[in-house]
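Q: Convert this sequence to structure tokens.
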Amino acid sequence: MAYTGGGKGRLEGCKITGNKMMGLFIHAASAPVIRNCLIRGGKQGAVGFEGRGTEGRLEGCDVSSKGLCAVEICDFADPVVVATKIHDAKGDGVRIWGAGTRGLLEGNEIWCIAKSGVSIKGAAPVLKGNKISRCSEAGVHMHGGAQGRLERNDVSLNLIAGLSIAEGADPVVSFNWVHHCVMSGITVNGSGTRGLFKQNRVNNNIVHGFVVAVGADPTIIQNRIYVNLKGGILFRDVETKGRLVANAVFGCGSGVIINHGAEPVVERNAIYSNELVRIFPSFLSRGRWI
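A:
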């Protein structure tokens, strides 16, 4: 089924299944409301929003895909996806890509995804109040200069990382709960990768709470980072910087680990009750501790 050429209207309580390519395609400045539908994707995924002026609202639906991602948003589209169950996709759960592409994802449940729950490349969406779990890669992967906001999401039980910020991404990440991931909670990697991480809870991840590496330079302020098995925060690699200000880091293997030439500024943090050490600088590490 397709909406094109400014198509609008309402699609409610329908079953869209058994299609060979894509279940529902919305493009060319269309803006329908799709509510309480069951949508199963084909080879090209389940739902696609594409093109400048394309908006629309996907609400209260159940979406999965045997092919690519379950939901794709691209080429300047700006839809709202709210209170929708997105699961069992063989690609990403939601893929948002392209400079100028936006979109709002709010109050969705995203789980059992073969790649990342939400993959954002170059776009600037808002993700708010979503539950993202049991993804085989990251809960949210931002790369290719992605921006936007991640706020009040519950991200857990993902294999690679809860949040993976890379390749020049620069988001605002606040009030999220990132926990019980198989590796690290939040990773920030790559030259030019920044981001503001403020007032998040990052706990009970098997490796580290945060990993900052490969030349990244984030600002990490007023987070609670606790009970991560190996360490609270790891800074590593030459040219890696970052500011760590007024955080509470406790109950981890080590509090803050700085190695391989990293140069962060560590200022006014409460680092306590960690099993090994509060701050462990090693391997040509530099930086300032205030």
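The mean pLDDT is 94.
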